[in-house]
Amino acid sequence: MSIRVLRPGLLTTVQDLGRWGMQRFGVVGGGAMDPFALRMANLLVGNDDNAAALEMTLLGPTLHFERDALVALCGGDFRPQLDGHTVPTWRPVFIQPGTTLNFGLATSGCRGYLAVAGGVNVPVVLGSRSTYLHGKFGGHEGRALKEGDCLSIADKSLAVSRSPANWCIGSMMPTYSDSPTLRVILGSEFDWLTNTSQEQLFSAEFEVTPQSDRMGFRLSGPMLELTAPRELISEAVCPGTIQVPADGQPILLMADCATTGGYPKAACVASVDLPLAAQLRPGARLRFSVISLAEAQSLLRERDVDIARLRVGLDFKLSRRDHVANSPHGREC
Amino acid sequence: MDRSTSGWRRSSNMSSVSSPKLAACRLAALGDRALVVHLGGRIDPPTFRAIRSLSRRLADQPPAGMLECVPAFTTLAIYYDPLRTSQTELISLVSKLIDTPDSTIETQPRLVEIPVCYGGEYGSDLDFVGQHASLTAPEVIEVHSAADYLVHMIGFAPGFPYLGGMSSKIAVPRRASPRLKIPPGSVGIAGDQTGIYPLETPGGWQLIGRTPLALFLPERDPPTLLQAGDIVRFRPITPEQFRQLAEPSA
What are the residue boundaries of the structural domains of chain A, listed by start? Predict the structure, then answer.
């Protein structure tokens, strides 16, 4: 065993980039609420994008490392401390065996991702290591971490990483606002809203209510009304979908949302902005602005190019360090 | 004529088709990663067959960048990676598929018999359904277990089947306040629909019975007892048979 959970925090789960190909069985995609932060954390420790990491929520865990490890914390700032000393976020950090990594309350954002070189080693269930809390499967025993849990880390040579790591992701580090404007694409039932409500969706501010979790956020704001009471025959929904139920208070669906739904869909948050939504906590206020499908996809492409460039840069540094340290660093040869 | 784009309105995220065969077909973007093809305006057999056919042909020859398809009552959602393909390419492919006759072989639907222990602690709303329908409890059971139900889609929760074909005689409104915990396997009625809860969830359906079979087991392949296109028949069993049939994890 490699990591012992001394305190679990508010809600700490094992997550990767989610389950694909199972939605026709009603199995949700799930995975990290903020996939960008997860990918960054994985990238900083030399993992694949999809390696399993810990997702912490509002109050982070206290973890005892029984072996050495290279870790990175991305996403919300949970003020990590290693045996009482502050350690940086959005950077790789080397951990000595026998030390304790402690996270506090998030001072910015809502969800943090702790990636460990090699990845958290839990069984793959239906193609993913993600915890699906509602279905009680995946991740660590299908549930959030508890005090006393032991997590194993997949093997990876760390010889390379013992000297202080001095790279960071620079300009790609997002700033988390508690009053962001999220870009959305119009939903297929946007036209069902009255003209006033169509306008309000983009002029008004909405608040994230405490009835918010990994499945979705209930928002409060002006009551959105349909031109006439209409029923939608259930069809596919996805994370980012903004539904308008009968009470007129929109629901923003998130990572663990159901695969299908029957409420009219007013809009859908662009994939590139979904990570910003994932970092909102109850009480945060948000606005929506509309963009076209083409714009949303072009933003996503730009994001992907940036990540790929960063990965090339980091791989180069890692390989040079490998060379200096004369370590195989997981290369098969 | 280049069918790929010319027939589609491109001014918004939604489009209509000019093809006479697809007069009723509508396309909509679901966020920036899925295309939803509407294959009919209501729940009926031709719509169901059109969804099956398109879904099967896409599965047989998955286009590059397609991630998965999610069938529903009147729609097929096609998830894709926008870095590897585009909505335009998918629309072009879907258009071609729908306009050409389906030469793939439709498999016989599977008949899945589901044993249900009706009433009592297994279905505490059975009497309420009876009162509402002016039927006795055995009559409700008789009506519910006499029909063949088509699994239109799986959604809402892992393995949850949306079933078509329930007699309107036993239709009943949802409970005014939902139950916080419904045991897995519970069979319920809401409006003119019947369904089975695969997981312990909150829910507002009127519960009339419970099956000892597990509808969802993540370690099974496929992970669900039912799939879209199956035919379901409910068979009444006794509490004793329920205990005998109970799967360890159910």
Answer: 3-174+305-325, 181-291
The nearest CA of chain A is from the CA of B144 a distance in Å of 23
Predicted TM-score (pTM) of this structure: 0.90
DSSP code of residue B109 = P
Interface of B with A in 69-98 (CB under 8 A): 69-75, 77, 79, 82-83, 86-87
> What is the C-alpha to C-alpha distance for residues A149 and A57, in angstroms, rounded to an integer?
17
How many inter-chain contacts (A to B, CB under 8 Å) are there?
141
Class of domain B3-99: alpha beta
Pick the CATH number of A181-291 from 1.10.10.10, 3.90.1150.10, 2.40.100.10, 1.10.287.3510: 2.40.100.10
Measured distance CA(A280)–CA(A76) in Å, rounded: 10
Chain A residues touching B157 at Cβ < 8 A: 26, 134-135, 258
Along the 250 residues of chain B, how does pLDDT read in single tens digits? 333 333 333 334 444 444 445 545 789 999 999 999 999 888 888 899 999 999 999 999 899 999 999 999 999 999 999 999 999 999 999 999 988 888 777 778 999 999 999 999 999 999 999 999 999 999 999 999 999 999 999 998 899 999 999 999 999 998 878 888 899 999 999 988 899 999 988 888 999 999 999 999 998 989 999 999 999 999 999 999 999 998 654 4
* Topology annotation, domain B111-245: Cyclophilin (2.40.100)
Which positions in chain B touch A261 (Cβ < 8 Å)? 156
Q: Are A20 and A29 in contact (CB under 8 A)?
A: yes
B73–A234 CB contact, under 8 Å: yes
First-to-last C-alpha distance (Å) of chain A: 27
